[in-house]
Automatic annotation (TrEMBL):
Gene3D superfamilies: Metal-dependent hydrolases (3.20.20.140)
MF annotations from Gene Ontology: hydrolase activity, acting on carbon-nitrogen (but not peptide) bonds
Domain of life of the native organism: Bacteria
Originating species: Falsiroseomonas stagni DSM 19981
Name used for this protein in its record: Alpha-D-ribose 1-methylphosphonate 5-triphosphate diphosphatase
GO annotation (BP), single: organic phosphonate catabolic process
InterPro entries: Metal-dep_hydrolase_composite (IPR011059), Metal_Hydrolase (IPR032466), Metallo-dep_Hydrolase (IPR051781), PhnM (IPR012696)
């Protein structure tokens, strides 16, 4: 079905202006086809669909409480619906592949990939896999390489949480919390962590194998939680051109000096700072040191963050919106989306600016989600 979105204010070429957007055959068209359905966007904004480069909120649909799991397919269907309701048309699901059992272990990895592939054809939202590979999980290296070769992985992030976990589990309460998430006894979790840490000497070679495979497949790579510019340089040498969640302003500056994308969380912007006590994203975005905002752990934060940034008075809405659409698309290697231009994928979100809320979400040219009461706008 073809569409004409008419009467609204359209973000096109970095400018918000009255206009129309035609969708035909799954793409944005130069003009409407005969017989196209019409959505009246009077009083609304017509914006590029949101592109989420990193979000792991789907984990809550699969394990809403520690140790309480639900089928991955059920959780993924629910996730797709929530994503569309948040205006997100491309979701790079952050799936952790860790040495931990449970939610972030190898069995959950397999189940999540299978669920995404089963749900994807009817999901509406373009569901993609952002593998968050835990550095010391060398037991899973060959399986991940096979999944990459099979085209099942679309982004690769180099995670390294093991040293921090090993320190924290010295506290019995924290050890118990990690164990509950993994579904094992605390003593068993501690033993697993110590075994993983013992693999540290083999990590550099494993990272190199992954980086070589990613380059061969054209899979964009990200570093994660870089603590220093030197750490960023190490991952840059591997080919990781995206700096994700830098832990200091100096790291962000080093990445931007090399022209690299810098990702921080939209919840950081909405809440006014990092819940971890790290760098604050909004002022860094205003200075050009953060170029991408991701949902991180809360999908509705992406759209809200664009308006929060605009309200701060430094960036206009067009530039703020690029942080959640055009820029993440470019960082993820997706040149076919993130902007409203003829020939690009038909991903559009119609937004009520006063409420900071989606009214309609179009994905690949199809009406994928409609807010209550908005059907009256369709002719």
């Amino acid at each position: 079905m073809d569409w004409m979105i008419a009467g609204g204010t359209v973000l096109r070429d970095g400018v918000l202006a009255p206009g129309e957007v035609a969708l035909s055959g799954g793409f944005i068209a130069a003009e409407a086809a005969g017989g196209a359905r019409r959505l009246d966007a009077t009083g609304l904004l017509v914006m590029p669909g949101l592109v989420d480069i990193h979000g792991d909120a789907h984990e809550r649909q699969m394990q809403p409480r520690p140790g309480i799991g639900f089928p991955a397919g059920l959780g993924m269907r629910d996730s797709a619906a929530q994503l569309l309701a948040a205006g997100i048309t491309t979701a790079c699901l952050g799936v952790t592949l860790s040495w931990e059992p449970g939610l972030r272990g190898i069995e959950a990895w397999r189940a999540t990939l299978a669920a995404v592939e089963a749900v994807r054809p009817a999901a509406g939202c373009d569901l993609r896999i952002h593998c968050r590979f835990e550095a010391d999980n060398l037991d899973a290296l060959d399986e991940l390489l096979a999944d990459m070769a099979a085209g099942r992985v679309h982004l690769l992030a180099f995670n390294d949480h093991t040293p921090g976990i090993v320190k924290r589990i010295a506290d019995p309460a924290k050890a118990a919390a990690y164990a509950a998430r993994a579904g094992v006894k605390a003593a068993d979790f501690i033993a697993l962590a110590e075994r993983a840490a013992a693999m540290r000497p083999d990590v550099p070679a494993a990272r190199q194998r992954l980086a070589d495979a990613a380059r061969a497949r054209g899979i964009p790579m990200l570093s994660h939680d870089d603590a220093t510019p030197a750490m960023r340089a190490t991952f840059r040498a591997l080919g990781a051109a995206v700096c994700e969640f830098p832990m200091s302003e100096a790291v962000a500056e080093a990445a931007r000096a090399e022209g690299e994308a810098v990702v921080m969380g939209a919840p950081n912007v909405v809440r006014g700072g990092s819940h971890m006590g790290w760098a604050s994203a909004a002022p860094l975005a205003e200075r050009g040191l953060v170029t991408v905002l991701a949902s991180d752990y809360y999908w509705p934060a992406m759209l809200e963050a664009a308006f929060v940034i605009e309200a701060r008075g430094v960036l206009d809405l067009a530039r703020a919106w690029a942080l959640v659409s055009a820029n993440p698309a470019a960082a993820a290697g997706l040149a076919d989306r993130g902007r409203i231009a003829a020939g690009l994928r038909g991903d559009v979100v119609v937004v009520d600016a006063a409420r900071r809320a989606p009214v309609a979400t179009f994905a690949a040219g199809r009406l994928a989600w409609l807010a209550p009461g908005a059907a009256a706008r369709i002719a």
